[in-house]
Amino acid sequence: ETGVTQTPRHLVMGMTNKKSLKCEQHLGHNAMYWYKQSAKKPLELMFVYSLEERVENNSVPSRFSPECPNSSHLFLHLHTLQPEDSALYLCASSQEIALAGARSADTQYFGPGTRLTVL
Amino acid sequence: QKEVEQNSGPLSVPEGAIASLNCTYSDRVSQSFFWYRQYSGKSPELIMSIYSNGDKEDGRFTAQLNKASQYVSLLIRDSQPSDSATYLCAVKISLSYGGSQGNLIFGKGTKLSVKP
């Protein structure tokens, strides 16, 4: 166990459904991440919440909406998804340090992931 | 476009042999490099991190970094069937003052198969 938990572990949803993925970290970290992992592709960073600031990947469709109510919890809200959104969604956390205008993130620790299937 | 390249494999080695996994990256000023292991259906777990040129050893694992050649490798000595997994190389992109920072770029991974 890495100290990062995700629920649910498996999710099947229709294209008209709305669902949310949840991530919780127990490591005292101050940065959390959402990644998408599709077959035959590298891990793709979707969103970062770091030092209470959200950093987005502009290529992520608006049908994915993140929420980070505090440094320990991260959500990914899903609505009107497409079948090509079926993938493993991974949450990660790290400890980030801000020094003189620059930032340095330590090792990222991953949760077990949510296997999402969109019908 | 910052990229991390790995051979997808599969790399097949006999039990007890040395497995050598390679990774190249395009961001010349990257400072931090990571190797993750991912079993099928599971999430990535950190194996090694390396920040300086040269070798870093941890048990049966040795990470090697050559910043001049923009090359990082992972050696697994005395390979075991339980080492069979996909190995992901990750590079932390260069820091920029006031801008986006510290994010990891992952390679597609190399699938390793250790035959008994």
Blueprint (SSEs and pairs):
The complex is a heterodimer of chains A (119) and B (116).
Chain A: E1 4-7, E2 10-13, E3 18-25, E4 31-37, E5 44-50, E6 53-56, E7 64-70, E8 73-79, E9 87-94, E10 96-99, E11 102-105, E12 109-110, E13 114-118
Parallel strand pairs in A: 2-13
Antiparallel strand pairs in A: 1-3, 3-8, 4-5, 4-9, 5-6, 7-8, 9-12, 9-13, 10-11
Chain B: E1 4-5, E2 11-14, E3 19-25, E4 32-38, E5 45-50, E6 54-58, E7 61-66, E8 71-76, E9 85-92, E10 104-106, E11 110-115
Parallel strand pairs in B: 2-11
Antiparallel strand pairs in B: 1-3, 3-8, 4-5, 4-9, 6-7, 7-8, 9-10, 9-11
Give a brief description.
Chain A is mostly beta strands and 119 residues long. Chain A has no helices and 13 strands.
What features would you describe in this structure?
The complex is a heterodimer of chains A (119) and B (116). In chain A, strands 2, 4, 5, 6, 9, 12 and 13 form a seven-stranded mixed beta sheet that branches. With 119 residues, chain A is an all-beta fold. In chain A, strand 4 (31-37) and strand 5 (44-50) form a beta hairpin. Chain A is globular. The relative contact order of chain A is 0.33. The mean pLDDT of chain A is 88. Chain A contains no helices and 13 strands. With 116 residues, chain B is mostly beta strands. Chain B starts with a strand and ends with a strand. In chain B, strands 2, 4, 5, 9, 10 and 11 form a six-stranded mixed beta sheet that branches. The model of chain B is unreliable at 95-101 (pLDDT under 50). Chain B has strands at 4-5, 11-14, 19-25, 32-38, 45-50, 54-58, 61-66, 71-76, 85-92, 104-106, 110-115. Chain B contains no helices and eleven strands. Chain A binds chain B through residues 2, 31, 40-43, 45, 48, 50, 55, 88, 90, 94, 96, 100-105, 107-113, 115, and chain B through 4, 34, 36, 41-46, 49, 88, 90, 92, 95-98, 100-109.
